[in-house]
Write a structure and sequence with these properties.
There is one protein chain. This protein is an alpha/beta fold and 396 residues long. The chain has two domains: 273 residues, LarA, N-terminal domain (Rossmann fold, 3-Layer(aba) Sandwich), CATH 3.40.50.11440; 94 residues, no CATH class. Strands 1, 2, 3, 4, 7, 8, 9, 10 and 11 form a nine-stranded mixed beta sheet that branches. It is globular. The termini are far apart. The mean pLDDT is 93. The site of iron/sulfur cluster has 14 residues, from helix 9.
């Protein structure tokens, strides 16, 4: 009889020790002497400990463990949100320093043309463009930071694979429509499940040292949860990642679909985890269904947008919302919208991103900010007519 997948879970000792201790609990022999590619979540240009990105010391703990095995080669690669400079994100996130310390190569996944992969029996995606460097390595390690997500409930090891998609291919996942068959879940959840059928990590290490709760993946609040979950079973890692965040894995549509399609179990009895794992649970606040709940006097229309514009919008509101009172409409609120599905927005709503232009009906009073996505300073300038002050944003 096949043994149950094993999960390593630890916490309360900081990112470096947490990762090392979690990895000690599982069998890593499949990585021995292999060429290893580490895929963290470095989706924003942000300093460590802000909850946006994987902590560099979690990466350091992983690299030290890999070197002890040993492995034949290690590299770290990323394709961040569209429009961001990968190496700037590595630098600000502390990853460059770690790579230099351990003599590990950094790779911009988007620097070379992608490889197109066919998805057998898809729900929605017949083909997808995957970053070519992935295919030069024997094993892929997903190292997400634990975050709640406005569109997918959580973003953990499997969702982190979306950062292996070439440039705008990530955006395309948010624009799909069902053609042959309809499913109750969002098209994005079906697309993530399609990707999972052809691309899953060989090892997942969830960095829960400082995650993000609320309006994740970019507008939420940092939360110190100080845990780590590691497993060579990608689904088990995400399943326990949810539990450690105090969330029901069944409430995460992409995990539910993947479990049904790939035969993964959604109950704790199907996996072997440490008896004391509940000690490390830190409940995360979910993203609200309506952003306006968290931002009083701001009405947000988020209709069929993707994470890139959502991130831009959240960063814009974080930095500039207090400057928007002169632009309130007659209801005493500032109205702003993203996504291709905006239909019933109040006249005077600011529209962000190329696809928000649909249904604008040529209204000359509408402020429209082009870009896919635009950056927060462009939005500020389009509304106010002036450049924002020159201080460098904490996050971009
Ligand atoms: S304009 Fe914004 S929401 Fe539309 S596809 Fe581009 S990034 Fe996504």
């Amino acid at each position: 009889m096949q043994s149950k997948p094993l999960i390593g879970i630890t916490g309360k000792h900081g990112p470096f020790e947490n990762v090392k201790n979690a990895l000690k609990q599982i069998d890593l022999s499949l990585l021995k002497n292999k060429r290893i590619l580490i895929k963290p979540n470095i989706g924003r240009v942000a300093k460590p400990e802000q909850g946006y990105n994987t902590h560099p010391l979690a990466i350091a703990g992983l690299i030290e463990t890999l070197k002890e095995l040993p492995v034949s080669k290690i590299a770290i690669g990323e394709s961040p949100i569209v429009g961001l400079d990968t190496f700037k994100a590595f630098e600000r996130g502390g990853i460059t320093e770690i790579a230099n310390k351990y003599n590990v190569e950094l790779i911009d996944f988007d620097a070379v043309s992608p490889i197109i992969k066919t998805i057998p029996n898809p729900r929605i995606l017949k083909q997808t463009k995957i970053c070519a460097p992935l295919f030069e390595y024997d094993c892929l390690i997903s190292v997400p930071v634990a975050k709640t997500h406005m569109h997918t409930v959580v973003t953990l090891g499997i969702k982190n694979m979306k950062g292996c998609l070439y440039r705008h291919e990530k955006v395309r996942y948010h624009q799909l429509e069902y053609i042959d068959k309809q499913y109750p879940e969002k098209t994005l959840d079906s697309a993530i499940s399609d990707l999972a059928t052809i691309l899953l990590p060989d090892l997942t290490v969830i960095d829960g040292y400082i995650g993000m709760e609320g309006l994740g993946p970019s507008g939420g609040d940092a939360i110190k949860s100080d845990f780590c979950v590691a497993s060579t079973h990608p689904f088990a890692a995400d399943f326990y990642g949810c539990l450690l965040m105090g969330l029901d894995p069944l409430s995460v549509p992409h995990l539910r679909i993947i479990s049904e399609r790939m035969g993964f179990f959604m109950d704790v009895d199907s996996y072997r985890s440490p008896a004391d794992y509940k000690e490390f649970i830190v409940p995360y606040r979910l993203a609200p269904q309506d952003i306006s709940i968290d931002y009083k006097n701001i009405v947000v229309y988020d209709q069929e947008s993707c994470s890139a514009c959502l991130s831009t919008l959240m960063l814009f509101l974080r930095r500039f919302k207090d400057d928007m009172s002169p632009y309130f409409l007659d209801d005493g609120k500032f109205h702003i919208g993203i996504g291709k599905g905006i239909r019933d927005a109040k006249e005077g709503t600011v529209r962000i991103g190329n696809c928000s232009r649909r249904n604008m009906n040529g209204n000359p009073k509408t402020i429209y900010v082009p870009g896919c996505p635009p950056v927060p300073t462009q939005i500020y300038k389009a509304i106010t007519g002036v450049e924002p002050e020159e201080n460098e944003p904490e996050v971009s």
